[in-house]
Design goal:
This protein is of the alpha/beta class and 446 residues long. The chain is built from 14 helices and twelve strands. The longest helix is centred in the middle third of the chain and has 25 residues. The relative contact order is 0.12.
């Protein structure tokens, strides 16, 4: 039997132990499994209390069961849900019983969602939205993923594809009636008008470059600077917990340490790096190399120093803010003495030890994140795959308009390419090689 024809099961709720655990079963044998366990088939879509038993009649658990016959289910297949008490022992016994049934096996990561996609319950953009929703760390990410899951991009793409097919039909009808005098011209004109409108709409979306993708991936802020400047102390202060070792000895941080922050709903990854200096220690040399690499890839660098005469090392195109630390140890404030020519004119004086000035730094980080992400609430594109396929669609539409005067067949072929790109965006054509990559990112049970 093909793996897709087998019945699958998995824990679809949180980690055990828990008050309640939900085990989902999907496939052609889901009904038989439910009848065996519960002793009878409950009414469809009605929560029913049942004493679950194994094949020998031994009790497993007092549970609540639900039955969703195909095609009116999450996966489009017969689906059973077993709401059991969330102990390891109960779940292990239930899994053992399910595994003993013929043509029944544990689900792979993302297999429930993949079956929903293959059975036409969702398109590929909605599946990607579900994956983003599962991995959302902030409220803004949650809202964006939920809009994608509800078909924000998918509905648009389906509408665009239908209009392209209609325009193509007009052009091809003109080809069929080429002997009818002015008929081809009468059909080409409305087709070109429709193509131009579509091109304007798609390119307007492409102009919001990277906003949705940025919100999905988050902002990266690197804390860099010389050894013993207070980088790890600032890291712990921003994270509000001890994530980095703080020591008065220079060179304590040897590797890159990352922490995820939610700044006013914006996802921010803060990275603490090794102190940048010359060293004969090969381990410290590797730490410095990694620190420089991460600073070059960052979206913002916070250069910490307790010395106003510090030399700021800048790599990459990211803005650099000078953070004068340890102001609580200074007898006077020299905030205006150091040059800020290499720091994008942003300078802050703080004490990472007692928190002085950190609130102002956090406010500035929120403002930076707001500018960086832009109006991502309206972003349709959340992944590079989506952007590339829309760019291919736009290019094909533009070529179709340019070729209209050189032959209807050439214009119609470019429209076919544009429709194919949108079909790949939705996952309806020529995406088999992508499916394993996309769905393996899901957790088991989804």
């Amino acid at each position: 039997m093909h793996p897709h024809d087998q019945t699958i099961f998995a824990l679809s709720s949180g980690r055990l132990p828990s008050a309640i655990a939900i085990v989902r079963v999907s496939g052609p044998k889901a009904g038989a499994a439910l009848r065996l366990l519960a002793g009878k088939m409950p009414a469809a879509r009605l929560a029913t209390r049942a004493l679950l038993r194994d094949a020998r009649g031994e009790p497993i658990d007092d549970a609540v069961v639900l039955w969703f016959p195909a095609p009116a289910s999450a996966t489009g297949e017969d689906v059973a849900e077993l709401h059991i008490h969330g102990s390891h022992a109960v779940a292990a016994k239930l899994f053992a019983v399910l595994s003993s049934l013929p043509d029944m096996r544990p689900a792979e990561p993302g297999e429930f969602t993949r079956r929903a996609f293959e059975n036409g319950k969702i398109d590929l953009t909605e599946a990607e939205g579900l994956d983003d929703l599962i991995h959302a760390d902030t409220d803004r990410q949650r809202r964006q993923a939920l809009r994608q899951l509800k078909g924000l991009l998918g509905d648009k793409a389906r509408s665009w594809r239908e209009q392209i097919i209609e325009a193509s039909a007009l052009i091809e009808a003109g080809i069929d009636f080429a002997d009818e005098g002015d008929v081809p011209g009468e059909l080409m004109a409305p087709a070109l008008t429709r193509i131009a409108q579509l091109l304007t709409e798609i390119e307007a979306i492409l102009l919001t470059r990277g906003r949705g993708e940025r919100l999905r991936d988050g902002l990266t802020v690197v804390i860099a600077g010389p050894p013993n400047a207070g980088k790890s102390t600032l890291m712990n202060l921003l994270a509000r917990r001890e994530v980095a070792i703080v020591s008065p000895h220079a060179g304590t941080t040897r590797d890159v340490i990352e922490v995820q922050l939610d700044l006013d709903g914006y996802p921010v990854t803060v990275i603490d790096t090794a102190g940048i200096r010359e060293s004969d220690d090969p381990v410290e040399q590797e730490g410095v190399r990694r620190a420089r690499d991460r600073a070059a890839e960052a979206d913002l660098v916070l250069w910490l120093s307790e010395d106003d005469r510090t030399v700021i090392e800048r790599r990459g195109d990211a803005p650099v803010w000078l953070i004068r630390n340890k102001i609580d140890l200074r007898s006077d404030d020299h905030a205006g003495e150091a040059s800020t020519a290499n720091t994008d004119s942003r300078t802050f004086s703080i004490s990472a030890r007692n928190g002085e000035g950190v609130a102002e730094l956090l406010d500035a980080l929120v403002d930076f994140a707001r500018d960086y992400f832009g109006t991502s609430e309206t972003g349709l594109i959340t992944r590079e795959r989506q952007r590339k396929l829309l760019e291919e669609t736009s290019a094909a539409l533009r070529r179709s308009m340019a070729l209209a005067d050189h032959g209807e067949e050439l214009a119609a072929e470019e429209l076919r390419i544009a429709a194919l790109s949108l079909g790949r965006l939705l996952g309806r054509v020529d995406v088999e090689d992508l499916l394993d990559v996309i769905f393996r990112e899901f957790c088991i049970g989804k």
